[in-house]
């Protein structure tokens, strides 16, 4: 598929690489191509484009911006370039302004995923992968041979199927459909435990298995 | 050990029964013994006492009240009867007033466990078991032969050891020490996902394994 990964941080670089590796055509979107290449020379030779062009290219658009930058980046990508697209949101509404552990700037009665969906009503938002570190997102089998769970939620079943297919391509074995996008509240609210476990372990190579 | 279980709802009855079964002396605390027996005739013959007497009896006191009733019940039990005691908090700050799924009445920058600790500073509060249904609390091996995780957190290491011992007695295999009591924020914030999974499954016989 044609996949646009928006964001050139660790998550975006990891996902873009893995999508390429699993056979997709990938464009990486960033605000300023030249500045990004100065900051991340490893992206030389990759198909790096301004956000609107990248989003326009993608059949699937992945938001790999951090939570605080997400809505602004998607606005810059442009609603017209997101309409009808599967918009995969892997971000978390983490507020790092008070140090570690971060808190959540939206929670409980709303979620960042829903904020995105409200602002881009014609996009087909699917929340997923936000409960794992970027390496596990892309290479789930490197921990316990993939015997753990990734969640998807969203209001568009076809979009969830597309995303589940991409996750299978990454090697995910246990993909759990949590239902409508409002249930992203539950997924984003796992982060306060996640960040504390990260603090306890000193590394992010852990996750959860839904035992049932 | 001498264990006081405060609360006669499903959680309290389940835990009291399991503590008895695993060899402890158990007293169940309730506001009004007579009314409780009318409501729960199954408690006939059990050692049911008013909250202050029950708490006074226990070396370990378990708060099995629902989140909204917790602080009031502990006040009625009396600070003097909780001082120095291991106070096990299994409750969740669920606000059911707006229907299903419930929201949390404290979260992110505070937790119910911390509220308890602040109000009863001489109690040795340990948060645990709040992420599983009452049957799994007491009989963890009935799901996946117990191959899943229970968390403990608290500011008193000896109290956490006591609680871990009690959990081993219930059959828990994987007891994870999450550190100080402030990390109860992470445990309580798992509930928004838990309640949605409960909605999806239609039963509470599921839980999480921390894969690492």
Give a short overview.
With 212 residues, chain A is of the alpha/beta class. Chain A has helices at residues 10-21, 33-39, 51-57, 67-77, 79-82, 112-119, 134-138, 157-170, 184-188, 191-201; strands spanning 2-6, 25-30, 48-50, 60-63, 86-89, 94-95, 103-104, 124-128, 149-154, 174-177, 207-211. In chain A, strands 3-2-1-4-5-8-9-10 form an 8-stranded mixed beta sheet, with helices on both faces.
Describe the structure.
The structure is a homodimer of 212-residue chains. The first copy, chain A, is α/β, with parallel strands linked by helices and 212 residues long. The first copy, chain A, has ten helices and eleven strands. An eight-stranded mixed β-sheet of chain A has the order 3-2-1-4-5-8-9-10, with helices on both faces. A two-stranded antiparallel sheet of chain A has the order 6-7. In chain A, strand 1, helix 1 and strand 2 form a beta-alpha-beta unit. In chain A, helix 3 packs across helix 4 and helix 4 runs parallel beside helix 6. The longest helix of chain A is centred in the C-terminal third of the chain and has 14 residues. The termini of chain A are far apart. The mean pLDDT of chain A is 98. Chains A and B meet through strand 7, helix 9, helix 10 and strand 11 of A and strand 7, helix 9, helix 10 and strand 11 of B. Strand 11 of chain A pairs antiparallel with strand 11 of chain B, so a sheet runs across the interface.
């Amino acid at each position: 598929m044609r996949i646009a990964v928006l964001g050139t941080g660790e998550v975006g670089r990891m996902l873009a690489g893995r999508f390429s590796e699993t056979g997709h055509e990938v464009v990486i979107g960033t605000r300023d191509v030249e500045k990004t290449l100065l900051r991340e020379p490893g992206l030389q030779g990759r198909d790096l484009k301004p956000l609107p062009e990248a989003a326009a290219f993608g059949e699937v658009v992945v938001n790999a911006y951090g939570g605080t930058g997400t809505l602004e980046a998607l606005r810059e990508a442009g609603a017209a370039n997101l309409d009808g697209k599967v918009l995969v949101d892997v971000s978390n509404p983490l507020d790092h302004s008070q140090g570690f552990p971060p808190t959540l700037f939206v929670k409980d009665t709303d979620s960042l995923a829903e904020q995105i969906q409200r602002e881009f009503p014609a996009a087909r938002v699917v929340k997923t992968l936000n409960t794992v570190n970027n390496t596990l997102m892309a290479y789930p089998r490197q921990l316990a041979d993939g015997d753990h769970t990734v969640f998807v939620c969203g209001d568009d079943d076809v979009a969830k199927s597309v995303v589940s297919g991409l996750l299978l391509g990454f090697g995910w074995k246990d993909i759990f459909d949590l239902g409508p996008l409002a249930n992203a509240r539950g997924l984003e609210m796992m982060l306060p435990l996640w960040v504390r476990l990260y603090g306890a372990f000193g590394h992010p190579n852990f996750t959860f298995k839904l035992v049932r």
